[in-house]
From TrEMBL:
Gene3D superfamilies: Carbon-nitrogen hydrolase. Residues 10-255 form the CN hydrolase domain. Keywords: Acyltransferase, Hydrolase, Lipoprotein, Transferase. It comes from Thauera aminoaromatica. It holds the Pfam family CN_hydrolase. GO terms for molecular function: acyltransferase activity; hydrolase activity, acting on carbon-nitrogen (but not peptide) bonds, in linear amides. This is Nitrilase/cyanide hydratase and apolipoprotein N-acyltransferase.
Length: 274
């Protein structure tokens, strides 16, 4: 039977935003919501994908990309984590890629002292076309290739981003985790059809909590994101959800719940294929 090192419930929080093209305004919104989550007692807080910038100009992210370890976006995350004494999972931000005209869509994690403890670069790049609605992340984003997990006050956490949700092999490669975090900016079209069922499936099949902070609403660029930021428990039950608009979703990650689910139905131990 899988076990967790946690001994008591830990409060976690997912932040939902409707980011626009003004980076400073987006950071101000994020700061306000981080403070709200911290005041609610959250020890681990996660921002959504693209929290610093969503622009009609897809090359805008390239112009604000930062080298790893230096830059105002990374300074912002480190400062917020340190100021509130929380572990902060920084949604995604654009970091320097090998290609000059692209970025890595990267999740950075900072501990409660403001030290960076983990990085994950989005592996699966979204492509979609239906009528006039079209997305091609590969045009401006360079994919990562490494699974990322780390230990935290909420136990073992595995990192993923948005479109990764559709690829269960990524989550199996994480091994046994207590929490999967998936910052996202799902489109309204695909989110309405698949968001909830996929999040619940990942929680059920990996017997862990899933926290998915999302973009949710109509952006200045004209893009409409699905939102429905949620936290799901290891039995697939939705503990908290925010449909749309900026806000904070809070729930407790309970090690007793993890142990009960894994003990009564030890599916991870029953796996036959690698």
């Amino acid at each position: 039977m899988t076990e967790t090192s946690l001994s008591a419930p830990v409060r976690i929080a997912a932040i939902q935003t409707v980011s626009g093209p003004d980076v400073a305004a987006n950071l101000e919104t994020a700061s306000h919501l981080i403070a709200q989550a911290a005041a609610a007692g959250a020890r681990v807080i996660a921002l959504p994908e693209y929290f610093p910038l969503i622009s009609k100009d897809e090359t805008a992210k390239v112009r604000i990309r930062e080298p790893e370890g230096a830059g105002p976006l990374q300074d912002f995350l480190a400062s917020e984590a340190r100021r509130h004494g929380v572990w902060l999972i920084g949604g995604t931000l654009p970091l320097v890629a090998e290609a000059e005209d692209k970025v890595r869509n990267s999740t950075l994690v900072f501990d409660d002292q403001g030290r960076r403890v983990a990085r994950y670069d989005k592996i699966h790049l979204f492509g979609f076309q239906r009528g006039e609605e079209r997305y091609d992340e590969a045009a401006t984003i360079e994919p990562g290739g490494t699974v990322a997990c780390f230990d935290s006050p909420a136990g073992r956490i595995g990192l993923s981003v948005c479109y990764d949700l559709r690829f269960p092999e990524l989550f199996r490669a994480m091994g046994e985790v207590d929490l999967i975090v998936l910052p996202a900016a799902f489109t309204w079209t695909t989110g309405r059809a698949h968001w909830e069922v996929l999040l619940r499936a990942r929680a059920i099949e990996n017997q862990c909590y899933v926290m998915a902070p999302a973009q949710g609403g109509c952006h200045e660029s004209g893009r409409v994101t699905w939102g429905h930021t949620m936290i799901v428990d290891p039995w697939g039950e939705i503990l908290a959800c925010r449909d749309e608009g900026p806000g904070v979703v809070v729930a407790d990650l309970d090690p007793a719940r993890l142990a009960a689910v894994r003990g009564s139905l030890p599916a991870l131990r029953h796996r036959c294929l690698a």
